[in-house]
DNA sequence: CGTCTGGTTGATACGACTCAAATTTGGTGG
DNA sequence: CCACCAAATTTGAGTCGTATCAACCAGACG
């Protein structure tokens, strides 16, 4: 498991080798530390190899919103280095293993490799689509639907990179994190999670999520999976076969 | 005024001619009609030449969220044609004049024109940054702050493309639109707008917005303009001078 | 062990929603 | 130019979802 790109594109052996090479420069970040902070000058593309991270924005009154989450295989902003400064921070939820990729390395990686280029594009577009879905989530869904939706999304995303099966996956977010991601308070998140459990939709303890009835959970949270764009030709295929 | 790109990049005469050529294929859309609908196959990049549009998502229970707004000069999804289907719709707020640009024309436009390529990238990244800011807006700001923030953002965006000055601009959104964009009800939007007027922050009638005290409005809505990334070298410069 | 972080519970408050109706505005056709 | 109609705005009363504040509990850790 190097990246999520494989879930999308039919990569050739050469593509894989190139990817491999470019992810050699790795770094570890402790849980709850920032990978990069608002105001910093972006210098690398990050690829999450292991662990979870959150992109968040803070307000002068101390409020904080997690605007997106990164799970293993996710790239952080393939082209941010075009911008002068970060308008948000990225913090590690768990201890994190990331690859640092310089702009130059990105060019080398994509130059003459249309499959990788396409796959990176797809990744970017899906990331944006997720951001839009979160906007919908915060604007229109109730607390119950909102949390249900988030759990489904994360479960599915983890599943596409082989980090979830049979309804189970690691789930390192605290109720506080969930509150920051859903625009609710931690107290309310706690109560809604209890409802979800009471309704036999999920189990969640010790950082382990068990989705008991995915279909029903998707239903009650009005989950429409079109926004994840998993319908691509390349899924589970291989350019060499 | 062809595009917003000029506000960012120092374009050469050749760049401008190329842009001009690629925006010849125009089309008009009536107000309140869809430019493209969820489920459609995206075939063109759209460039809004005149009028306003909204990107929105709907839920099975009938709720609707405007997830972003387009004003003159905005591109709709420079690379969506990579995805199979639209996961949202784009509807015209006013009568709309748009340019249709095919993927091929986009390649021709960017091929060998690094300034345009860079500028398009910048536009995409700012669009995404705005989407993140909306997530923050919906998740953490009060109704009063939320509306104030949206008004400031639109005013500033219009100003960078020369469609606003002295605090004044066209503002074709109905209170219903504002409700769909802010995740509030139209009734509540109405009441909050009255508060904003009472506080001498804005005037708003007959589709005309007048921001009476931009600085204070930015203050009360905790507006941090870093996310619009207006700090680029190219602003108001010209590659030929 | 004490301390800390994360989770749980209870009581109360308030911001935003709902529903319903009145009023104003803007467009259309006679 | 006026009469009419639909759309948009405004107002009021009552309700509800979520926030707030304050404890308390459990497990992890040094």
Characterize the structure shown.
Two copies of one chain form a homodimer. Chain A is an alpha+beta fold. Helices cover 38% and strands 21% of the residues of chain A. The first copy, chain A, has helices at residues 13-22, 103-110, 114-140, 143-160, 175-182, 186-198, 214-220; strands at residues 26-29, 34-36, 45-50, 53-58, 64-70, 75-76, 89-92, 96-101, 164-165, 168-170, 202-205, 208-211. The longest helix of chain A has 27 residues, at 114-140. The two termini of chain A are 18 Å apart. Chains A and B meet through strand 5 and helix 3 of A and strand 5 and helix 3 of B. Chain B binds a DNA duplex (30 and 30 nucleotides) through helix 6.
Strand segment tally of chain A: 12
Largest sheet of chain A: 4 strands, antiparallel
Shape of chain A: globular
Rg of chain A computed from alpha carbons, rounded to a whole number of angstroms: 18 Å
Uncertain ranges of chain A: 236-241
From the helix content, strand content and strand pairing of chain A, which structural class follows? Answer: alpha+beta
